[in-house]
Design a protein that fits this description.
Blueprint: E1 2-3, E2 6-9, H1 13-21, E3 34-38, H2 54-72, E4 79-87, H3 97-111, E5 124-130, E6 133-139, H4 153-168, H5 186-194, H6 201-215, H7 219-228, E7 231-237, E8 243-250, E9 263-264, H8 265-268, H9 274-282, H10 296-305, H11 307-313, H12 316-336, H13 339-352, H14 368-380, H15 388-410, H16 414-443, H17 449-462, H18 467-471, H19 476-488, H20 493-503, H21 512-524, H22 531-538, H23 553-557
Antiparallel strand pairs: 1-4, 2-4, 3-5, 4-6, 5-6, 7-8, 8-9
Helix pairs in contact: 1-2, 3-4, 6-7, 6-12, 10-14, 10-15, 11-12, 11-15, 12-13, 12-14, 13-16, 15-16, 16-19, 17-20, 19-21, 20-21
Biased composition (Low complexity): 536-545
Region (Disordered): 520-558
Length: 558
């Protein structure tokens, strides 16, 4: 059940609200509008007065609601109308008018509009439009002339809605922490539908701004990327001329006056204000130390594989930073993905966006490698032989998201946990599409049974606790192939296997053979060590001879 509070102001605010509630709606979506409850239980009902002009009844109802406001004259508050649509989920049972009336009374009581038993409370009505929702409208002056005590009413109403879901057996939504992005309004939805668009301008802008933040190395490139993707930017400047904030608009998205419709960054999402964007960009700004050259697919995968360690052993601020970096990586992956994967990965990125924000301040210092390597993939489109680079990065991302679920769960971040769970489902589908052909191709080139027995012996010596799982894993032949390829490139199979096992435990691997396949593939593509280095590694280091104990000064004199 989703309640949403909207405030109205102006001399005709109440009349406009009542006119909308009993009208046809913006797209004829209002079906049989009628009162289900009111402050006194006998307010005039424009939907149930067959012998009177509905407009006349609307005016009478608005006047009665407005009476306490009019009594204050110039001392009336700026905002005089409290409007709260309350919508049930599509799968919820259809509630009777009496049930919706009870829900409305509980909502206005929780909000401080009309506490139970308070005869001098604000005047309000609840209007039912269709089977699945009502609208509550109230005026924000009590009948005794005082203001209602509605501090934190949005939070209180959401809390009451969660209890109503339990009491009525409705779909139970996850409690939030105030860090979710603002939902599109019904007006924005109707506009998108009218224009034949799948998403609202707010949602499209949020995606494009997030991608620009993920891709840009600095502020100048960020604004250039926005312009290239059809986003207009209007900066808000202080007296000094410095940019303090920015608003975004889609090209071609205009209001009824033909003016661009701008959204401030903070209304798109709490982390898209200009100060927050600058903090994110600072983690990709050039540093004095040069970044080590290498395969960006491997670098991104290695950095992603370290996220679970940050989530389980790092402090909460570093962990929150890692989730932000993972979200940025997911934002850019659809741009570089094969066509068949784009839609699924875009859904994964859009859903995981909710899992990247919490009340915990983020430390982004440890996220540079991941952000830069993913940017290199987006910018340079490095060669990805047979799609293995994409597959191993998705495999690492799957594990990272699974750890994100647990991290949010332990901190009772219900919405973030649910978002990460949905993300995992989308990524699993995409991973299967890209990984299965790669693993099948590797398995088709498996080495001889004698070579595989030798590798199995290495595994038995190195990880006896996992050897049975690995040898019975469908990816065992693919693992044997990459070990053979590493040997052909000059590596020692046992050494490479030990290095792969040392990177991360296999205890939580869904498929240990597959995890080792991706690790050894990366290790095998590095330059093999020289014979002298191999000999030095194989030769045990002899302990240095102990130095004789220092003699006392008197002994040295003798």
């Amino acid at each position: 059940m989703i309640p949403k509070i909207i405030l109205g102001k102006g001399p005709e605010a109440t009349r406009r609200t009542i006119g909308y509630l009993f009208g046809k709606g913006r797209a004829n979506e209002h079906i049989d509008p009628h009162l289900v409850a009111s402050w006194n239980d006998f307010a005039p009902d424009p939907g149930r007065s067959p012998h009177r002009d509905p407009k006349e009844v609307e005016a009478q109802l608005a006047a009665q609601l407005d009476q306490p406001v009019k009594m204050l004259g110039d001392k009336a508050p700026k905002y005089t109308v409290w409007h709260c649509p309350v919508r049930a989920a599509p799968e919820d049972p259809i509630l009777a008018d009496a049930q919706w009336a009870d829900i409305a009374r509980r909502i206005v009581a929780a909000a401080g509009i009309a506490p139970a038993g308070d005869e001098e409370a604000c005047r309000w009505v609840a209007v039912r439009h269709a089977d699945d929702h009502i609208h509550i409208a109230a005026t924000l002056v009590r009948q005794d002339g005082r203001r209602p005590k509605r501090d934190y009413d949005q939070r209180a109403v959401q809390r009451e809605a969660r209890q109503i879901e339990v009491d009525y057996g409705l779909r139970r939504l996850k409690p939030g922490d105030g860090t979710a992005a603002k939902r599109p309004t019904s007006k924005e939805h109707f506009k998108a539908k009218r224009l034949g668009q799948d998403a609202t301008s707010r949602e499209v802008l949020r995606l494009r701004v997030r991608r620009a933040v993920a891709a840009a190395a600095d502020e100048a490139e960020f604004f250039a990327l926005l312009e290239a993707t059809g986003v207009s930017v209007r900066l808000k400047r202080g007296p000094s001329g410095d940019a303090l904030g920015c608003n975004f608009a889609l090209l071609g998205d205009t209001n009824d006056k033909g003016e661009p419709v701008f959204y401030s960054g903070s209304t798109l999402a709490p982390d898209l204000s200009l100060p927050q964007i600058r903090r994110r960009l600072a983690t990709t700004s050039p540093e004095p130390a040069a970044v080590r050259p290498g395969n960006p697919w491997h670098q991104a995968t290695n950095a992603t594989e370290r996220i679970p360690h940050h989530l389980t052993h790092g402090d909460k601020h570093a962990a929150q930073g890692q989730l932000i970096a993972l979200g940025a990586a997911l934002d850019l992956l659809p741009v570089t993905a094969p066509a068949a994967l784009k839609a699924g990965l875009e859904q994964a990125a859009a859903v995981f966006e909710r899992a990247t924000r919490s009340r915990i301040a983020a430390d982004l210092d440890s996220t540079r490698v991941l952000r830069r390597s993913v940017q290199a993939i987006w910018r340079d489109r490095p060669q990805d032989r047979d799609g293995a680079g994409f597959a191993m990065l998705l495999d690492a991302a799957l594990t990272a998201v699974a750890f994100a679920i647990h991290w949010h769960r332990t901190r009772q971040h219900a919405q973030q946990e649910a978002a990460a769970e949905q993300t995992l489902l989308h990524l699993q589908v995409a991973y299967a599409q890209v990984a299965e052909p790669v693993l099948a191709s590797l398995a088709s080139r498996a080495p001889s049974p004698q070579t595989k027995r030798r590798y199995a012996h290495h595994l038995q010596q190195a990880v006896p606790e996992h050897v049975e799982r690995i040898l019975h894993d469908p990816a065992w032949d693919a693992l044997a192939t990459v070990l053979a390829e590493a040997e052909a490139a000059g590596h020692n199979a046992a050494t490479v296997l030990d290095q792969a096992l040392g990177q991360r435990t296999l205890d939580d691997a869904r498929s240990p053979a597959r995890a080792l396949t991706w690790r050894i593939r990366r290790l095998g593509e590095r330059h093999p060590p020289s014979p002298r280095a191999e000999a030095a590694r194989a030769t045990p280091v002899q302990p240095a001879a102990a130095a004789p104990p220092p003699q006392p000064q008197s002994a040295r004199r003798r």
